[in-house]
Target: Ribosomal RNA large subunit methyltransferase J
Amino acid sequence: MLSYQHAYHAGNFADVQKHLTLYAVAEYLLRKKTAITYVDTHAGRGLYPLNTKETQRLQEYREGIWPLWQARGQLTDPLLNSWLTTLGTAQSNASELTHYPGSPWWLSQPLREQDRLTLFELHPGEHEHLSAQSLSPQAQRTYGDGLAGLSGLVPVATPRLCVLIDPSYERKAEYLEVVDAVAYSLAKVRHAVLLVWYPLLPAGNHHSLLNGLRESGIRKIWRSELQRYTPNEQSHGMYGSGMLVINPPWGLDERLAAAMGHLTPLLGTDSDYRSEWLVGE
Model:
């Protein structure tokens, strides 16, 4: 199935959690000079104008990045402020929120000459948009399946590897396909840092992903979840989102907990953020 287009959801609360986590991880990795290969398995368009008919149809950004953007200048958390300052460089007007950048943009921004970025996108329309985006010269766009492409890339030529895996999970089988891709990648590059996004839906299908990773033998998996509200029997749609970071940088949990402590109340009084070790410390 290739029906999913992220433009309808650009800038929502799940994007904020995912990209803030990605930004924090990349910031840590850049403290060392050794080269990094970044891989984005489900890249999407790269940059989303918020005035398009797709984004305006649902306007999910108004319950995601919008309240955070409105609060900029009033926040005291250094990670949030740094992230928002970087976000500002993607805007047509520094004082107005006109665009929301996807993961290809966030990954491309800090690339150094020695680093590499491979972006996979299987949806033909989304790949066409991605190909038109202005990104770092080190960014390679590939039309194809990201999980299969990742398996074909590892091991990589650079000393370090960072991977973002965030499928749409339109198929239930994708949850276990992600487990297999993670396990294979780590068998090839033991110290790779892998980030996995997953949706929280009333059906609870994400538990197959979590259980599969628990049983995989992988040793260090940190988990965080952002809930917009507590679901009940009448709930439908995505009520929250989760992030897994495998081989997380030291101190990541504390930095993100502090940032989310400022961010979560802006998303509504019922919002809640929790983090824990799924496997490990």
